Amino acid sequence: MKALRFFLLFCFGLLIWSCEVEPFEGNSLSETDPEVIDPDPEEEDPEEHELPPLNAGELRFVLKGRSFLTDRANSVLNNGITTIVGYDISNGEGLTVHLNGEGSGTYLFDSLNIATYSPSFVDRPYRTSVHHGEGTLSITDLDLPNAHMSGNFELIAYRETFDSEGNIVFDQNGNQIFDSVELGSGEFFMINIDQ
Fold it and tell me: What domain range includes position 72?
């Protein structure tokens, strides 16, 4: 059963991590200013929320003033890579993180350390590897004998913007336009480690 869980977790994380969007070849489809679209400019500051302590095995973050707590959270350490996954099983909303390393410490999201936020099973994900995504994840407690880890994170992730016909949207200068999402006050507490 443990091997099956590891295999399913690994496959799902690899699927999200390996998603690529084919480049669009054609003319500009939008005459808007070159900027990243903020889907909700009136959102509350995620730092203003007082959140209760987490229970063992939980992962949580704040998105647009809403606290998101996963149904399931797990991690895998394998060949120098740490994968952390937390999802709501009912709708697919959640977070997958791939880190190039297996130890405690702070990791910057870059081309090697990638976070992917999925709003649902069917929506396109936001990734820190797209359009200068940024943030950090800190593993503050790595307890290998008891197979659990804890830590915190904050990130900004992006996704490509498409028109109603499914074409990538560009501004008047030919620059691609992106949607962004900010995950604040992120933390995970004593999530299981599959080794």
Answer: 2-19+57-194
